[in-house]
Amino acid sequence: MQKEIKEIESALKSLPEQIERVIYKNGDDIAVSIGRSFERLEERIDAGEARIYSRLTDIAAEIGAELKTMRLYVEDASEVVISEE
Q1: 62 with 69: CB under 8 angstroms?
Q2: Tally of structural domains, the chain
Q3: Which pLDDT does position 23 carry in this prediction?
Q4: In sequence order, what DSSP letters do the residues of 62-83 get, joined into one string?
Q5: How far apart are alpha carbons 54 and 46 in whole angstroms?
Q6: For residues 21 and 15, what is the distance between their CA atoms, to the nearest angstrom?
Q7: Of 4, 13, 81, 85, which sits with the fewest C-beta atoms within 10 Å of its C-beta?
């Protein structure tokens, strides 16, 4: 049991060094992976911005149509009031 515990302790002590070696040896691959992740994130942000802009444009068009309809009602109502006088 003591032997197993010492082996585990030894393995744990060397673990940070092993991780450091893996990162050092694969640094370029890790950097490329991180770069690609940022590119995908940027693409998603751009797509989200495009969707928001599209929805805002649709809303603006609907508001414009409603304002036009309201102006027509107001003009009709004012004509009725003027013709009654």
Answers
A1: no
A2: 1
A3: 80
A4: HHHHHHHHHHHHHHHHHHHHHH
A5: 12
A6: 10
A7: 85
Place of tokens 């744990």: 12
Three-state secondary structure of 13-64: HHHHHHHHHHHHHCHHHHHHHHHHHHHHHHHHHHHHHHHHHHHHHHHHHHHH
The whole-number pLDDT of residue 84 equals 56
Tell me the CA end-to-end span of the chain in Å, nearest whole number. 108
Distance from CA of residue 83 to its chain's centroid?
57
Which tokens sit at 6?
A: 């010492």
Domain that holds residue 51: 2-84
Report d(CA 32, CA 18) in Å as an integer: 21
Residue type, 13: K
pTM of the model: 0.52
